[in-house]
Amino acid sequence: xxxxxxxxxxxxxxxxxxxxxxxxxxxxxxxxxxxxxxxxxxxxxxxxxxxxxxxxxxxxxxxxxxxxxxxxxxxxxxxxxxxxxxxxxxxxxxxxxxxxxxxxxxxxxxxxxxxxxxxxxxxxxxxxxxxxxxxxxxxxxxxxxxxxxxxxxxxxxxxxxxxxxxxxxxxxxxxxxxxxxxxxxxxxxxxxxxxxxxxxxxxxxxxxxxxxxxxxxxxxxxxxxxxxxxxxxxxxxxxxxxxxxxxxxxxxxxxxxxxxxxxxxxxxxxxxxxxxxxxxxxxxxxxxxxxxxxxxxxxxxxxxxxxxxxxxxxxxxxxxxxxxxxxxxxxxxxxxxxxxxxxxxxxxxxxxxxxxxxxxxxxxxxxxxxxxxxxxxxxxxxxxxxxxxxxxxxxxxxxxxxxxxxxxxxxxxxxxxxxxxxxxxxxxxxxxxxxxxxxxxxxxxxxxxxxxxxxxxxxxxxxxxxxxxxxxxxxxxxxxxxxxxxxxxxxxxxxxxxxxxxxxxxxxxxxxxxxxxxxxxxxxxxxxxxxxxxxxxxxxxxxxxxxxxxxxxxxxxxxxxxxxxxxxxxxxxxxxxxxxxxxxxxxxxxxxxxxxxxxxxxxxxxxxxxxxxxxxxxxxxxxxxxxxxxxxxxxxxxxxxxxxxxxxxxxxxxxxxxxxxxxxxxxxxxxxxxxxxxxxxxxxxxxxxxxxxxx
Length: 695
Hints:
8-stranded antiparallel β-sheet, single chain, globular
């Protein structure tokens, strides 16, 4: 085991400072005045080859691949001094002190210490070659983000596994691994009378499977600590030293990429159900009939997510880039009719194939797949939907070229500017030593697995633009790595139909918003499990209209289809909620543009806007839509009241109560019924609504 215990030397490069430790090298780079890169290499080398970073201050082997998705900045050069006990780096805003023996790194914003490692053993490489980084923490620190997580918003005391899985029908409160792999969080240190709270971003630029322990472990020999542990790579940490949560999110999206500016139709109602594309034949007519029925009932719709049933071949096996002509005899004609009806088709595309795929031998001859670790001339065979399968290697330039060509010919050219990338977690590639091209360098799936989804999304985005230069692509995807927001809208995967999912999916969406992805939603009504009850479906729609992605989608185990009119008694209330969504489109579009500029979440936890109000630190269910509209949905079965805490410092006007004013800083109790959608407008705020409804 290798434990870094002391600093023994120092040298400066053209962009930063290398501190030589007894067991590793520590590279400190001021990317900006407030973004500090702290990279530890036990090999004492620092190669640069990132598919993630959108802003760098150094040459990178993948600069050509990243192209316009990457910006080069000039590194800031702090004043560096050495004393008998420490090395000190003084930048214009942040000061870093590296104490020599015992080794400890401390960071200061002015006179305030904002970060520290544990002394004497901050960086370790254990006997299993796992790398560990220990950081100091306070007992009541708050931790937000981590990409897509279940449970409550604040992750203090939690143990988190960072591993993308195909987590069908997951428990929205307790499931640990989910579909996204985003090793980034925001640490919030509470303030007091002497100084305000302080928010800091912690982005680990590492795609190996990893874990975060956020204070769930104690040792009598160390002060309170959290740690990050990864299976490989480097301890490559970007510290975003801004002080406020909005500024941290701004920095993080500058570092990993600004969110895509989606077309307006992506903010409308997206119909979907696996049912329609799984019929024995004439699925196209069933779908066209569904759109007609939506219109007949006076409900607007902007798209339909076409599940993968359209690709099924012999024995109902799904084969990407093929069409089932019994179900869809004229795909181009079908797409054209859907476009005429104002509901563009969003076809499902998958990154792996079954061994029975009709083009398998052709693909294999071109070497397009992730390779077996022991037989590198053969694809790595693992699990897939319907049997054994093999996965495309998107780190291979040849694969990217073939994929883009086929995606254009068999999907985009059929008549759409939209692509639904699905099942992109690479969860079935079980051999972690399976080989990837890594753009010529060679690597293993263990260190590249999460990035496959991002590259797949990028290819879809580029293919749409290259096919139609006037189009604004709409790419939607279930999984993703840091930077996925540059290309795609996400959703919270195959949730289970339950009141628990309705409640806890909110924190999952809010956490993604704090992790750089403002364009997130959940399947309304629940995807897996039975049909939602009448009350649950009503409440889910009344909440879902505030999610950036609004899609009613299902694969119910009882073979029902979740449709807006499925319960006659609630059909009018469902319709009115959807019409409210469309009246809010100007607000959503303004927030979409703001997110594109600075990464600001569309759905925001209260702590994002009210960081100095400790009573909102644990709030996971009440949220803001933008800066001014507070939403407190009814989330409990049979509820007759809803208790709401209103942040201090402002009056809040209840939209459902003729703008009754409530002072902030206290909890109120509202009477609610089936028509209730509790909303409050912040003092000084603007709440725009459209007058005419699109049809």
